[in-house]
Amino acid sequence: MSRKPRVSIVGVPQHVIQRGNNRQAIFNNDEDRQAYITWLKDAADKFNVEIHAWVLMTNHVHLLCTPQAPAAISLMMQSLGRRYVQYFNRRYERTGTLWEGRFKSSLVQSEMYLLEVYRYIELNPVRAGMVADPANYPWSSYINNALGKETSLLKSHPLYLNLGTTTQQRQERYRALFKLEVKGSELKGSESFKTPNDSDPIC
Fold first, then answer.
1. The pLDDT of residue 201 is above 70
2. Across the chain, which distance is largest between two alpha carbons, in Å?
3. What single string gives the DSSP state of each residue in 23-66?
4. Is the pLDDT confidence value at 169 over 90?
């Protein structure tokens, strides 16, 4: 049975999730995480994908990104996935698959939900009980979007830029959005955004 083609629209953001096979860990230490982020940047640049938000959890990854070319996200994830698996298998002397099939993705077609997805992604470590404050988790884009840590990985979405007229103002207003935690149930049921497998463990 052939797989359904992915729906991908140039200029429309997507929430992407990729999980470890059988929910196994895909990152064992910070060196693994840094390798993934480095190669994510390479692949995003190569295939013309804008990354707006991200988080690396123990056994899965969340990305909010916008393709600027046809099939750009699929090409990015395929390239990144192959490169990281080769690294992981060689480093840990293992063979076989690392990923749980194809990555999952959802279009974020309504602008009113885009910042909710930002928050949903960057609050993953808080909901998992790993930290009390997203600022204390170094492997997400919160430290960039909310606290101003410089990175060449991220490209701010226009709605993020509309939060203020200055960098400081945008960051202050962005941090204010996190005073109320986003629950997955707030996003479910929306035709514009549904969290794939939201009931799965997030740690």
1. no
2. 52
3. G--S--SHHHHHHHHHHHHHHHHHHTEEEEEEEE-SSEEEEEEE
4. yes
3-class DSSP state of 175: helix
pLDDT digits (tens, 9 = 90+) for 90-109: 999 999 999 999 999 999 98
Name the CA dihedral angle for 108, 167, 141, 154, rounded to a multiple of 10 degrees. Answer: 70
Under the banding of pLDDT at 50, 70 and 90, the label for residue 164 is very high
Q: Which domains does the chain have, with CATH numbers?
A: 14-179 (3.30.70.1290)
d(CA 127, CA 51): 22
Could you give the CA distance from residue 18 to residue 28 in angstroms, rounded to a whole number? Answer: 16
To which residue do tokens 């070319």 refer? 69
51 and 44 Cβ atoms separated by less than 8 Å = yes
Average of per-residue pLDDT across 16-40? 97
